[in-house]
Amino acid sequence: MTKLSLLDLVPVTEGGTISEALDRAADLAAHAEQLGYERYWTAEHHGMPGIASAATSVTLAHVGAATSTIRIGAGGIMLPNHAPLAIAEQFGTLDALFPNRVDLGLGRAPGSDQRVAQAMRRGLSSGAENFPHDVREIQAFFEGDARLGFQATPGAGANVPLWILGSSLYGAQLAAAFGLPYAFASHFAPDALDEALLVYRRDFKPSDQLKAPYVMAGFNIFAADSKEEAELIASSMMQAFVALRTGTPGRLKPPVQGYRETLPMQAQAMLAHTLQCSSIGTQDDVERDLAAFVRRTQVDEVIVSGMIFDPEARKRSFAIAMEAVKQIATTQPAA
Question: How many CA atoms lie within 13 A of 40 on its CB side?
Fold first, then answer.
């Protein structure tokens, strides 16, 4: 059976609070653990009124305390915003709190814009061009490399697998060269998916962490007991995408019946393009769409996203997704 994981951006709903968003994140992670999800990841975004996971390692500590077996991790940490030592210490601390459960996905985008980079007080020499060096430095801190002259405490000796994240060929090339698992952001940036996976698998070089290529890809699921309800709950995330593309991000809005049809054709086309790797519908729809996605990509793992306004509808959607994966496994057993 293809492994299924969960990506949660910890949405802050319109009329809700950040405290509520964080409590719902912990509840969702515990729900995913009960359902059999492999891992729960959240991501670093800054200056976004509708996303509460900016302090990613702190959010993960909260989630880790509410769970016991599911892997928790960053999908990801935007490394140009941080000193590698600080990240090694943060995730070394998480590993000490939740041994053998912590993942560290690394991305080279800032997670916002240059105002964020300035607010982070990062120097001019700390941009995305230094990403490969910074990844190696984190590895060295975790390994306790004597050449560093001191040990990261916590951090040295931590068992925190690194992942490279990406939505272009760059991340695929780096993950292959470093022999690290690769996660592709096809849930919002699907264009380079097939080529990036080809490059990663073709150029992969085994490492101490990983002997063969390992791929995870993002996929949106909005599942409900009827197609109409699924389309309704998906409209909150559609509104968020439209707001982001028009430069007006805000808190996650309540669903709107028939929202997609109210949009101008240009916005409808944008949503259709952005949501290529998605399924909106019943369990049967999810089974069909997810099976087709796995056949196309041959991924080892799918990480499911889906920002839904109502927390119970969201939990129901992720439960249907897991049932769909189980059903796919019974009808299309692995060779």
Answer: 32
Rounded Cα–Cα distance for residues 227 and 231 (Å): 6
Which residue has tokens 């690290």? 180
d(CA 165, CA 182): 6
Residue with tokens 């699921």: 221
Domains of the chain: 1-160 (3.20.20.30), 219-299+309-335 (no CATH)
Strand partners for 323: none
- pTM (2 decimals)? 0.95
Q: What are the φ and ψ backbone dihedral angles of 264, each rounded to 5 degrees?
A: -65, 160
Structure tokens at 200: 């990663």
CA distance 192 to 194: 6
Element (H, E) at 43: none
- Which pLDDT tens digit goes with each residue over 161-199? 999 999 999 999 999 999 999 999 999 999 999 999 999
